[in-house]
Amino acid sequence: MSAFDPALRGRGRFQDDFTATPVPAGRRHANRAIGRDFADLRRNRMKTLRTSLAGIAIAVGLTGAAQAQSLRIAGNFAPSHSSSKAMELFKSELKRLTGGSLDADLFPGMQLGGAKENVDAVRAGTIFGTWIGTAFVSRLVPEIEAVSLPLLFENREAAFRVMDGPVGDLLEQKLGAKGFTALGWMELGSRQTTNSKRPIKALADFKGLKIRMQPNETHLATFRALGANPIAMDVKELYSALQQGVVDGQENPYPIIQTNRFFEVQKYLSNTNHFFDFIVLVANKRQFEALKPEQKDAVRQAVKAAVEAQRKMATEEDRAALEDLKAKGMQFDPVSSETASALRKATAGIVDDVKKRAGADLVDRVIAEGQKK
After folding, report:
1. Which of 53, 114, 135, 253 can pair with 234 through a Cys bridge, CB separation 3.0 to 4.6 Å?
2. The pTM of the whole model exceeds 0.85
3. Cα 242 to Cα 361: distance, rounded to the nearest angstrom
4. What's the CATH fold of domain 68-370?
5. pLDDT tens, residue by residue, 162-185
6. Mutual orientation of helices 360-370 and 350-358 as an angle, nearest 10°?
């Protein structure tokens, strides 16, 4: 007999591989009862499994619906800096405007690397955006140097009149061609000079000083014209370079000098006001364009609120930082009007160099706009 005899199907007989042995009637009834119990148990288990799977599916769906899309944005400024505070406002406004569907994951204080690394990460699409000093994008968009001319702006109002007008629109187009979307311009502020060697009261006091600079050719050329020895260096390396005497000094707005604690390794401070600097918030263009129209509108509205708040904060922050630096022991030597004129005269030739890199028409336009009253 075969291992399975069709003639015995339904008659309650069990087979092994070799024989078919008749099963007594009593055992047949018992086996049928056991079979019914197993069938009931299997139906109950399947019902429980279907219920469990349905519950999991609902839970997963709810989690996905509640989960916000997050924009990773990095910055080099300390959390206490006005730009970092403004980005916190951006984060809260973005969440409010999108009902929580779009959020910002912020990384201030060089958590994701230095300035150059952040710019490169945005361009590559590794992160959504960065808020950064404009000097760190000038290597990719040299036209930005047009707003970095030495001793160009009389005050912050003049600076933002230029940046909020047609010049700013043109620079945003140039950034767009390099894969960035410029979302807003904040204030980094007027840059001042510190060093550990001597007070700077006259043009001759710059001679031979090793001064750390941002990687911006206009900035470097300006300090060469002043007689200094400028050295391009990322800000993340600056404190140790000052501490170890690799460089004698640096130049930054008062709040940056304060938040980076450069007063611990620098003695002399002068209000040279040689550049007015901007912070640009840039996003990866592809990632920004991939957002829904209403999300892009929300991002721009949130940025506008953040920029307005930061510019107001920066004014007070600048004043308070200077007072704090003096209180912490830095010797402050104001630059006289005669010295300011000497600095302007010494750097006059820089304009022609910038015209070669940024374009003569743009530079002339910036100068004309900056000198309007």
Report:
1. 114
2. no
3. 39
4. D-Maltodextrin-Binding Protein; domain 2 (3.40.190)
5. 999 999 999 999 999 999 999 999
6. 120
